[in-house]
Design a protein that fits this description.
Number of strands: 8
Strand order of the largest sheet: 5-4-3-6-7-8
Largest sheet: 6 strands, parallel
Bound molecules: 7-thionicotinamide-adenine-dinucleotide phosphate
Distance between the termini: 71 Å
Number of helices: 17
Radius of gyration: 26 Å
Shape: elongated
C-alpha cells in the first residue's frame, strides 16, 4: 500500500480517537465516543494488516481469537466492583506487548534472515538499528516491564491475593533510585552500541523488579490511582513502540493514552486532596478499609440517632427536594436499580430528585456514573460536586447511600484529619441527613465520620439494597 495513503488513513484514525475521547467527557455522548474511538482503532488495525510488512495472518488470527476471546469473556463476567483489577491486568498486558514488540524488533533488525542460494536460511548481523531507535526500544522495554509487574501487583492487592497494606522495605527509595540509575546506565550502553543485546535483557529484569518495588509500598485502596498512572505508562510504552516500528498511529494513540491516564490520575489525586508523590511514596493506608482493613474510632460518648424505613419514606415523600449521594457501599450492595426506583417514586410524588456525584466516590473513576447509567438514571439528574454543593442548603433530605469519606465534614473543619482539605459533598448542610450503611465503621480512609452524630443526621442501618428496598416498599404502601 502507498505510504502516503497509509499515513492519511492513520490520520483519520487518530482524529477519530481524539473526537472519541472528547465525547467521553459527558455521559450523554460517551457511548458514541467509545464507538468512534473503536472505529478509529479498527481502521488503524485493518490498514496495518493490509500493509505489506505483515508476515503471517495465521499468527494474527490465532492471537486475535485467543486474546480477544479471553478478554471478552473476562470483561463480560467481571463483577462491577472488580473492574479496577481487570483494568490493571489489561494495562499490564498492554505494557508487556510494547516491551515484546521492541525486543522482537531489536532481534529481527540485528539478525535479518536471508535465503541463500541453496534455499537454506542463514542469519547475518546487520547492526541496523540507529541510536534513536535503540533509545526508544530501551524506553519501551523499561516502561512496558514496569507497567506489567506494577499492574500485576496492583491486581494481586485488589484481588486479595496479597496484603493490601503498604509493604515498606528499609531504604526502599535508595534501592529504587539505585535500580533506576543502573537501568539508565545500561540504556546509555545499549543506545551507544547496538551489539550490546545483553544490556536490554538486564533492563528487562531491572524494570520488572522496579515495577514490583514501586507498587508494593502503596496501600491497596490507593490502587485505583496507581492503575490510572500505569495506564498512562502503558500508553507511553506503546508510543515508544510506535517510534520503534515507525508507526504514526501507534505513536498518536499511545500518546493519547499516556496523556489521558495522567490527567485522570491528577483528577483522582485532586479529589482526594493528595499529591501524586504522597500516593506513590507516602505509604498511606492499611489496605482497603471496606474489606475489613480498618476499625472504627468512634467516640463511645456520642450517639448516632436511628431511623427506620417507614419514617424515612414519610419524610422523603413530604420533601420538596431530595439529593441522593451514592458511594462505594451502593456498588457493593448493587443497589443502583432500587435506588433509581426510589428516585422515580419520589419524582412521581412531586419531589425534586438529584444525584450528587463525588469525583472519587466508590473505587474507580466514574464508578457512580457507570452504576447509575446502568440503572438508567437520567443524565440530567446527575450533578458534580461543584454544581450540587450550593444546593444542599436548600435541600430537605440528603440521602447518603453507602458513602462515607466523601461526606465527612472533618475534611472541612479538622486540620488534624488525614482527609483535611479533601473536597466533600456538603450533605450536613441539608435539613435532614439520612445515611444508609451497615454500621458506624469507617470507609476507605479508615477514619471516624462526625456526620453520623450531628443533630440532623439519622442512620438507617442495613445493607443498602435491602434498606432502600424497604423504603421503596414503605413508599408504595403509603
Ligand atoms: P467509603 O468512604 O469507602 O465508604 C463506603 C461505606 O460503604 C463504608 O463506610 C461501609 O460502611 C459502606 N458499605 C459497604 N458495604 C455496604 C453495603 N452492602 N450496604 C451499605 N453500606 C455499605 O466510600 P466513599 O464515600 O464512596 O468514598 C470513596 C473513598 O475511596 C474515598 O476515601 C476515596 O478517596 C477512596 N478512593 C476512591 C477512588 C476512586 S477513583 N473512586 C480511588 C482510590 C481511593 P459499613 O461497613 O458500615 O456498611
Amino acid at each position: 500500500m502507498n505510504e502516503y495513503l497509509i499515513n492519511i488513513i492513520y490520520l483519520v484514525a487518530a482524529a477519530l480517537f481524539i473526537f472519541g475521547l472528547k465525547k467521553l467527557s459527558s455521559p450523554a455522548t460517551a457511548r458514541r465516543g467509545n464507538l468512534e474511538a473503536a472505529l478509529g482503532m479498527l481502521i488503524a488495525i485493518v490498514v496495518t494488516l493490509l500493509d505489506q510488512q505483515i508476515l503471517s495472518f495465521w499468527w494474527i488470527i490465532a492471537g486475535a481469537i485467543i486474546g480477544g476471546g479471553l478478554g471478552a469473556w473476562w470483561a463480560k463476567t467481571v463483577q462491577m466492583t472488580a473492574m479496577p483489577q481487570l483494568v490493571a491486568v489489561f494495562n499490564g498486558f498492554g505494557g508487556v506487548a510494547s516491551a515484546l514488540v521492541a525486543l522482537s524488533e531489536y532481534h529481527s533488525s540485528m539478525s535479518r534472515t536471508v535465503a541463500d542460494a541453496a534455499g537454506e536460511i542463514a542469519a547475518i548481523t546487520t547492526g541496523d538499528p540507529k541510536v534513536d531507535t535503540l533509545i526508544t526500544m530501551g524506553l519501551s522495554v523499561l516502561i512496558g516491564m514496569v507497567t506489567l509487574t506494577g499492574s500485576l501487583v496492583a491486581f494481586a492487592k485488589l484481588q486479595g491475593l496479597m496484603t493490601g497494606a503498604p509493604i515498606l522495605l528499609p531504604a526502599r527509595h535508595w534501592l529504587n533510585l539505585g535500580l533506576a540509575a543502573f537501568a539508565l546506565i545500561l540504556g546509555i550502553v545499549f543506545a551507544a552500541n547496538a551489539e550490546a543485546g545483553w544490556a536490554i535483557w538486564i533492563i528487562v529484569v531491572i524494570a520488572a523488579a522496579l515495577g514490583i518495588l514501586l507498587t508494593i509500598p502503596i496501600g491497596g485502596a490507593d490502587m485505583p490511582v496507581v492503575i490510572s498512572l500505569l495506564n498512562s505508562y502503558s500508553g507511553l510504552a506503546a508510543a515508544m513502540s510506535g517510534f520503534v516500528l515507525k508507526n504514526e498511529a501507534l505513536i498518536i494513540s499511545g500518546s493519547l493514552v499516556g496523556a489521558s491516564g495522567l490527567i485522570l490520575t491528577r483528577i483522582m489525586c485532586k479529589g482526594m486532596n493528595r499529591s501524586l508523590a504522597n500516593v506513590l511514596f507516602g505509604g498511606f493506608g492499611t489496605g482497603d478499609a471496606a474489606a475489613g482493613g480498618a476499625t472504627s474510632s468512634a467516640d463511645a460518648n456520642r450517639t448516632a440517632k436511628q431511623m427506620d424505613a417507614e419514617d424515612a419514606a414519610l419524610v422523603m415523600e413530604n420533601a420538596k427536594q431530595v439529593i441522593i449521594v451514592p458511594g462505594y457501599g451502593m456498588a457493593v450492595a448493587q443497589a443502583q436499580h432500587v435506588v433509581r426506583e426510589l428516585g422515580d417514586l419520589l419524582e412521581k410524588r412531586g419531589v425534586t430528585v438529584k444525584y450528587a456525584i463525588h469525583p472519587v466516590a466508590g473505587r474507580m473513576p466514574g464508578h457512580m456514573n457507570v452504576l447509575l447509567a446502568e440503572a438508567n438514571v437520567p443524565y440530567p439528574q446527575l450533578y458534580d460536586l461543584d454544581d450540587i454543593n450550593p444546593d444542599f442548603d436548600n435541600t430537605d433530605v440528603a440521602l447518603v447511600i453507602g458513602a462515607n469519606d466523601v461526606t465527612n465534614p472533618a475534611a472541612r473543619t479538622d486540620t488534624s484529619s488525614p482527609i483535611y482539605g479533601m473536597p466533600i459533598l456538603d450533605v450536613d448542610k441539608a435539613k435532614t441527613v439520612m445515611v444508609v450503611k451497615r454500621s458506624l465503621n469507617p470507609g476507605f480512609a479508615g477514619i471516624d465520620n462526625p456526620l453520623y452524630y450531628l443533630t440532623n443526621t439519622y442512620m438507617l442501618f442495613g445493607d443498602a439494597k435491602s434498606m432502600i428496598t424497604d423504603v421503596v416498599g414503605a413508599l408504595k404502601a403509603n
